[in-house]
Design goal:
alpha+beta, 3 strands, rod-shaped
């Protein structure tokens, strides 16, 4: 039987940074046709079951030891490629051809998993704090811009009042009109002292003269 068959190989081993890692790969393999009689004679009909778990575990341990736990996640393609290359070399010694190797499981110990979760929480908190700071800065800038605008407007108003007497008279008229509108729409009787009005009788007499 020279058809390609799948098998799974698992290994529990340590990473470069001493984290416990469980790695499982799916292997597609077939025998070298010319070596099949010898394989049956020396290893038996179940040659794959006798050879692959042993050499697979050996290869997985050697590859995992070259990467940190984080690298096993971020460089998964490189890990898979390294496992494939090494397994092909070892399997060929026993007359077995490896067509494909794919990682089906990559797990870590509880301590590392907890550390990763804590790191993710810390990163989320840092991003949240960054957002709050940026929002506060934007609000501060808005307040400063508004204050600068109001200060500039006040300065221009003061300048206009100093340089143009007629400007003040116009503002008095506008203010009086606003007061009259308020009184006209009010249901209550409103009494205003004469000295509180911006347009006084003295101003009116002066304008007639």
């Amino acid at each position: 039987d020279i058809r390609t068959r799948p098998d799974s190989i698992s290994s529990l081993t340590g990473s470069k940074d001493l984290q416990m890692v469980k790695l499982t790969v799916r292997v597609l393999h077939r025998p070298q046709e010319k070596n099949l009689p010898k394989m049956y004679r020396e290893l038996g009909m179940n040659y794959a079951e006798r050879v692959l778990p042993s050499i697979g575990n050996e290869v997985l341990k050697s590859v995992v030891a070259q990467f940190t736990a984080e690298e096993l996640l971020t460089k998964r393609k490189q890990v898979s490629s390294s496992v494939t290359d090494r397994l092909r070399v070892r399997a060929k010694d026993f007359g077995i051809l490896i067509d494909d190797v794919s990682i089906t499981e990559l797990g870590f110990g509880s301590e590392y998993t907890h550390a990763v979760e804590q790191k993710q929480v810390a990163q989320q908190e840092a991003e949240r704090a960054k957002f709050i700071v940026q929002k506060a800065l934007r609000e501060k800038e808005a307040v400063i811009i508004k204050a600068e605008g109001e200060a500039q407007a006040a300065e221009l108003l003061g300048k206009a009042m100093r340089e143009n007497d007629g400007f003040l008279e116009i503002k008095k008229i506008e203010t009086a009109q606003e007061i009259s509108k308020i009184i006209a729409t009010s249901r209550n009787r409103v009494l205003l002292p004469s000295d509180s009005l911006l347009l006084s009788m003295t101003d009116a007499l002066s304008s007639n003269e």
